[in-house]
Amino acid sequence: MESKIKALREQVEQTLCAVQTKEELSAFWQQFLSKKGSIQGLMKNLGSVPAEERPAVGKVINEFKAQVSAKYDEMAAKLEALELERLNKSEQVDITLPAKKRAAGSLHPITITKNQMIDVFSGMGFEIYEGPEIEDDDHNFTRLNVAKNHPARDMQDTFYVAQDILLRTHTSPGQIRVMDSQKPPIKVLVPGRVFRSDSDATHSPMFHQMEGLVVDKTITLCDLQGMLDEFVKKIFGGSVKTRLRPSYFPLTEPSVEVDVSCFECGGKGCGLCKGTGWIEVLGGGIVHHKVLENCGIDPNEYSGLAFGIGIERIAMLKYGINNIGLLYENDLRFLKQFKD
Ligand code: DAH
Asked: Which helix (H) or strand (E) segment is 90 a member of?
């Protein structure tokens, strides 16, 4: 029996030495410590030991079993620790690595320009009004002094939705809607989308305008020039000058076109100003007495000034954009260049 225990002890040592995984440890337990295992087998053989030696041999076997059990526990703990270490290593995070950058969006150049324009005019006390994009003929043309067969209708190629219903060709109908609902003094800005059947490098079938309207007693062309002078200085820089040129719009009399001195060459003449030293930026004038009358405002008591600015035109000049289409393609390489 003693030699059997000794042989088993050696076998236990050897087997345990070779154990590297939980599965192998479990096989070790099956082989030696389970009910069908070799140590239990020794117990079963106890019958062959002389009766007087049995207690002593039984004790030795029990001690042996306790030792093997302890070794088993020790190995189980060791394997557990190794497994934990392996997991820790594989799940390790290097907190010194640079974080993934998330690209932040930015405002569209049209929105940036529109916001800047609104900022300038709201600083002068203008309020914002937004009219409908689908208009009727009356607001878009007739009450703005453009009668049904007026040749000025040819200036704006119109998209019709139905008989006398159209996509507004300018933000000027906003003037009528404001004067219909408010009594003077009036000082409003009407920003918004407008539509014309027109498309080339500087024209798009949909674009944006910003209308301005001031109605009060004793409003003159001087007020218009003063306001627009301030506006272009804020948008294009303090050294820029304005000049008014006589023009024609049916809704204003007199009408003017407003030029700014070229901010690229300072007025000497360059590609941007086509050698003239001046760049046309907007149209405006003194509100036609018929337009005031059409809205129930007495032109003998009140006068008004109005202007219409193309937002794309201002954005293209400001940022040096040579094709209006770029503003609508949503190409991120283009859009990423604009930060407010
Ligand atoms: N509505 C005109 C256009 O789109 C621009 C314009 C001219 C607006 C003169 C005005 C103005 O308010 O007074 O062609």
From this structure: helix 54-90
* Span 242-281, pLDDT tens digits: 999 999 999 999 999 999 999 888 889 988 889 999 999 9
Q: Is the pLDDT of residue 150 over 90?
A: no
* Residue whose CA is at the smallest distance from ligand 1 atom 4: 170
CB under 8 Å to 73, separation ≥6 — which residues?
A: none
The closest-lying atom of ligand 1 relative to the alpha carbon of residue 155 is: 14
- pTM (whole model) above 0.90: no
Closest residue to atom 12 of ligand 1, CA basis? 307
Ligand 1, atom 6, residue with closest C-alpha: 308
Q: Average pLDDT for residues 57-76, to the nearest whole number?
A: 90
Kindly tell me if the per-residue pLDDT of 187 is higher than 90: yes
Instruction: Determine which residue's CA is closest to atom 9 belonging to ligand 1.
Output: 284
- Give 257 Cα–ligand 1 centroid separation in angstroms: 10
Q: For residue 300, what are the contacts with CB-CB under 8 A and spacing of at least 6?
A: none
Atom of ligand 1 nearest to the CA of 144: 1
192-229 pLDDT, tens digit each:
999 999 888 888 999 999 999 999 999 999 999 999 99
- ∠197-179-160 over CA atoms, to 5°? 20
How many angstroms separate the CA atoms of 236 and 233, rounded? Answer: 5
- By CB neighbour count within 10 A (0-12 exposed, 13-18 middle, 19+ buried), where does 270 fall? middle
**Does residue 249's CB lie within 6 angstroms of at least one atom of ligand 1?**
yes
Asked if residue 173 has its Cβ within 6 Å of ligand 1, the reply is no
